[in-house]
Each structure stands twice: as C-alpha cells, then as structure tokens.
Amino acid sequence: MSTIAVIGAGSGLGLAIARTFGRRGFDVALIARTPEKLDILVDQLGQEGIKAAAFPADVMDRSSLTAALERAAARFGGIDVLEYSPAPHTPVSGLTMVTPSETTVDDLQPQVEYNLYGAVTAARAVLPAMREAGAGTLLFTTGGGSVNPIPMLGNVNAAAAALRNWVLNLHNELSGTGVYAAHVAISTWIGANAPEGFPSASPEQIAPIYWMLHEERSHPEHIFTG
Length: 226
Ligand SMILES: NC(=O)c1ccc[n+]([C@@H]2O[C@H](COP(=O)([O-])OP(=O)(O)OC[C@H]3O[C@@H](n4cnc5c(N)ncnc54)[C@H](OP(=O)(O)O)[C@@H]3O)[C@@H](O)[C@H]2O)c1
Description:
Blueprint (H helix, E strand, L loop, with lengths): L2 E5 L5 H10 L4 E5 L3 H13 L4 E3 L7 H15 L4 E4 L20 H29 L2 E8 L10 H21 L4 E8 L2 E2 L9 E2 L1 H4 L1 H9 L4 E4 L2
Parallel strand pairs: 1-2, 1-4, 2-3, 4-5, 5-6, 6-9, 7-8
Pfam family, one: adh_short
InterPro entries: NAD(P)-bd_dom_sf (IPR036291), SDR_fam (IPR002347)
Organism: Kribbella solani
C-alpha cells in the first residue's frame, strides 16, 4: 500500500487531494495544526473506505513537522507522496499581507518560514528514504502570485516565488533518480465566495492535477488557471 502525506490538510484542497489519492489505493497521513479538524477529515475519509490518520503539527514549528512526518512514516511503513499546501484560513501568528513597497523583513520572514522553510523541512524529512528507494513524489502548492505577482500580496508572493524556484531546481536535481518533484501554482480562488470578477474552481476540479503529475512524472510545474 502506498501513502500520501498532505501537509496543510483542510476541508478544501487538502481533503480533495487526500480523496484523489485515497480512491486510488493510497493511505493518507493528514497534517495540520488542529487535531479536532483533522479527526473530522479522518472520519470522512474512513466512511469513504480510505484509511487516513492525523498527525498534528505546525509548519512554523519545524521540529513538530519533522516529528509528524516520522510518525506518519512509521505508522504507514513509509511516505511515497508528499504534498505541501498549508493555507492560513485561521490566523497564523506573524503572517501579514503587504505591498512590495511596504514590505519589511519582519513582514517577509514569517512568510518565508511558512512557505519555503516548512516545505524544505518536509522534503528533508522524507527525501532520504525516497532517494534510497529510487522512488517518490514531492508536490508543492502556491497561489498564482508565485508566477504573476500582484501588489497587494507583495510579501506573500515573494516567499511563494522562493518556494517555486526551489522546487523547480529540486525537480532538475532529482531528474533520473526516480524521485520526482513539481510545483503547482493555482491562479484561481478555491471554492465558493470568490471576490467579484475573480475566477474560481472547486477543490475537486484542481485535485486531479496532482494525480496527473504523480503519474506522468515529467513536468516541473503546472499552472492552474481554471
Ligand atoms: N483558497 C484559495 O482561494 C487559494 C487560492 C490559490 C491557491 N491556494 C493554495 O491552495 C492551498 C490551500 O488549499 P485550500 O485553500 O483549499 O486549503 P485547505 O486544504 O482547505 O486547508 C489548508 C489547511 O492548512 C492548515 N494550516 C494552516 N496553517 C498551518 C500551519 N501553520 N501548519 C500546518 N497546517 C496549517 C489549516 O489547518 P489548521 O488551521 O488546523 O492548521 C487549513 O485547514 C495552499 O497551497 C494555497 O496557497 C489557495
């Protein structure tokens, strides 16, 4: 049995990715901060015949993230696919949104911790076993602003672009090893209540892209535009 670890597992995209892989025979390790919310997702997936378990951790607390991934690997016998997509739908301490000209190091640093350092920490927790096996998939998600930035997200986009750059280069480095890394940029709002004039898509429309990337193992990036 293969296992996917979803980091930033919420009721939107995280759950849809868990379902997409779970329906194809994967066990699912769900990682986010709030145990109660994770337990609801575990129950939901269980009712659909998907074996899932919760491993609470905060991506800003790097040792908790590493420990959660180690527990998940021990529980399921390894991690075959890692997917990174936390989103601060409830407040994350220190995260702000400022324009490029307003950006200070204090505004930027937590975004870098959240986007880049969390992703690097997660990858380092699973990559040695993947390299040894000569197999594995690493998928990282950002908003479309990592590619086409918008002024109101100056600090957010800069940190997401740093993550994107690192993933594209990780993809290059891992070429030929059997381990595959890719970046997904989502240029739409996800779910209902999109701001006026903003394109939106459901999590169910977006999640199959992750399966496609995992199966095809060729593209370094997919930019989802709806
Ligand atoms: N929503 C959008 O409109 C939109 C648009 C473009 C791109 N994206 C991308 O899509 C992904 C998110 O998808 P979604 O919006 O549907 O979210 P989701 O999967 O419904 O939920 C994301 C989960 O991340 C968890 N999280 C937040 N901060 C965390 C932290 N510090 N450590 C660990 N987990 C944390 C939250 O749970 P806890 O609060 O329990 O930690 C939340 O439930 C992100 O990569 C985001 O950049 C979203």
